[in-house]
Amino acid sequence: MKTSVKKCLFPAAGYGTRFLPATKAIPKEMLPILTKPLLQYGVEEARSAGIDTMAIVTGRGKRAIEDHFDRSYELEHQIDGTSKEALMFEIRDIVKNCTISYTRQVEMKGLGHAILTGETLIGDEPFAVILADDLCDNAENEPVLSQMVKLYAQYQCSIVAVEEVPTKDTNKYGIVAGEFITPDIMRVQNMVEKPEPQDAPSNLAIIGRYILTPDIFDIIRDVKPGKGGEIQITDALLEQAKQGRVIAYKFKGKRFDCGSVDGFVEATNYFYAKSNA
Fold first, then answer.
1. What is the DSSP string of 117-152?
2. Cis omega (within 30 of 0) on the bond before 21?
3. DSSP β-ladder status, 53-58 and 134-137
4. Residue 246 CB partners (closer than 8 Å, separation 6+)
5. What are phi and psi of 12, to 5 degrees?
6. Cβ distance 236 to 112 under 8 Å?
7. DSSP designation for 259
8. pLDDT tens for each residue of 47-74
9. If you write DSSP's letter for every residue of 151-164 in order, what string do you get?
10. Residues 59/104, Cβ–Cβ less than 8 Å
11. Is 191:234 a contact under the CB 8 Å cutoff?
12. What is 7-275's CATH topology?
């Protein structure tokens, strides 16, 4: 097994129902914050962590993702030599320097199932996972995934990014508890998927950044489906945590829940203000 993280998995097969009717024909991962799709922000974050192989789990109606991460000869011809050409530099750079591969999740059976679907693209090596609708920014520090890759080099185990949330909101997240090794790093001992506030072991919530060791695939295969027939990655991670092989990291940076309209608007306002600072 490799000891460095060189691949990043992007689960992108969800329906994005909270953004209907916009997401009837447009993948939610392609919704833009200013002029850049959410998924491109995620790919750029992975690249900043030294990752150049992107594995994207898609579904029906997601062709726009593949078209975005590809050459557009007609468009490039039209803007060649104009001031608009500079607007394409970032995506051209990604297309030129990254390997991007796709597989389809035929049924929506939870995040654990989406990650298992990506096994064919990952193989037997540690890998990152970015959920594009959790948009993270670091005004002064290195991006969240870069921070986590450095931690993986030290601990060589699965890592989840966490942040404190209001107790009333624990039923929206996977919640972790355990023993802090440092003020920002916890050895996870317990994980609960979307507990009610009175049942939550803490208020530390997992957000959409993971580094996973490849044995997670075999563990997911043995996880029993939960509510709604979904296979949760939290249940698989709990099996690793029981062996002391999961770290929770209180990351440095700001995170926006762009899977909600409120978070999407907040992120748009934040990045607009930042672009005009």
1. HTHHHH-SS-EEEE-TTEEEE-SSS--HHHHHHHHH
2. yes
3. unpaired
4. 157, 158, 159, 160, 187, 188, 191, 237, 240
5. -140, 40
6. yes
7. T
8. 999 999 999 999 888 899 999 998 887 8
9. HHHHH-SEEEEEEE
10. yes
11. yes
12. Spore Coat Polysaccharide Biosynthesis Protein SpsA; Chain A (3.90.550)
Residue 76 pLDDT: 78
CA distances from 165 to 148, 153, 190, 255 (A): 20, 28, 17, 12
Q: What is the dihedral of CA 157, 142, 261, 269, to 10 degrees?
A: 170
One DSSP character per residue, 28-43 reads GGG-EETTEEHHHHHH
Q: Which amino acid appears at position 29 of this protein?
A: E
User: What are residue 182's DSSP bridge partners?
Assistant: 185
**Contact call for residues 51 and 5 (beta carbons, < 8 A):** yes
Q: Which string of DSSP letters, residue by residue, matches 170-188?
A: GGGSEEEEEEEEETTEEEE
Q: Give the CA distances from residue 76 to residues 66, 82, 161, 200, in Å, rounded to whole numbers and listed in that order.
A: 17, 10, 38, 52
Residue 106 has pLDDT above 90, yes or no: no
Instruction: Write down the residue that tokens 């209907």 correspond to.
Output: 20
> Can you give the residue ranges of every domain in the chain?
7-275
Is 27 in a helix, a strand, or coil? coil
pTM of the model: 0.93
